[in-house]
Amino acid sequence: MAIMSAQEIMDLIPNRYPICYIDYVDEMVPDESIVATKNVTINESFFRGHFPGNPVMPGVLIIETLAQAASILILKSPAFYKKTAYLGAVKNAKFRGMVKPGDVMKLHIEMLKVRARMGIVNAVATVDGKKVCSAELTFVVAERTEKI
Hints:
The active site is at 50. One of its GO terms (molecular function) is (3R)-hydroxyacyl-[acyl-carrier-protein] dehydratase activity. It is a single chain. The protein has helices at residues 6-12, 59-75; strands at residues 24-29, 33-39, 83-95, 104-114, 118-127, 130-143. A six-stranded antiparallel sheet has the order 1-2-4-5-6-3, covered by helices on one side. The radius of gyration is 15 Å and the shape is globular. By secondary structure, the protein is an alpha+beta fold.
């Protein structure tokens, strides 16, 4: 059962179609962790060119999807609510499997550190319980400059 719908997610983060990748949030412990879901479909625009005949989700977009899940966790914190989280660094990114149309990608984010204007998370993407990507992501939080 989803605890946040796609519309609630879009009310929190600025990403919109075609680059809003989180379908729903499964569970969340504020300021600690989140599990979110991305249903990967053949209709994704990136599959037209990556790769025809063997569609694979680009690694950079897997990182982007993890970053969106992490930004939900960060922006649900009372200290950062109604602000914007910008990806500042990606460390130790490892890709261990391919993500293909029809996969359900689960995004597991654990908060490691929070400071006045930044957060660091451990991020893991899985498909069918198998790790396909992991990374440490650093975010810088700033005031929202425009209404979404």
